[in-house]
Structures are given as C-alpha cells and as structure tokens.
Amino acid sequence: MAGHYLPILFAYLGARRKEFAGLAVDDIAKDDKGYIIILRTNGIRRLKNVQSQRLLPVPEEMVRLGFIDYYHAVKKLGYAPHRSAASCVPALPSFSAD
Asked: What pTM did the predictor assign?
C-alpha cells in the first residue's frame, strides 16, 4: 500500500526518492493548517544535507486518496522502523563468469 502513495507524493511534492521511501510514522504530523510531512534524518533515512530538512504539506489529493487513513492504520498497528534504508535495497545480480 505504501508504494501506491510514493509516486503521487513525488508528483505533488518532488522530494528525493530516499526522502519519501524512508518516511516513518513519526514523520507525519498535524499542524494548524493540516497534515504535514517532516523530512528529517530518522532511524531509516539520512538526508543529503542540513538544508534538506523541511516541512511539506500533505496535498489534499493525498488526503482524498486515503493517505491519512493509511497513516492512522499503520500508527495504530504500532509500526516502528527497525532497519536501515540500505538494508531494504536488494543487491544487484552478479554477471561474472564465476
């Protein structure tokens, strides 16, 4: 389900791949204007530089498509990241003659 929302987030907000792929439950919050995505270093993601830390509004279309409902469902399950983003990337196949 999370993969369903990633392309939409890229289209609306234009962050780097690893910034959105490394989102954790704690990176979603609500402020006085609505829901926001907090891009910051966390246990599964590093940022390119300090200037990459920022707050992004969750687009209304994402809310309409159920992203906030999905967020609440994952949060209710007690999701906690437990591995680094690097460990989620599969190794490339080897094409050596060995």
From this structure: 0.72
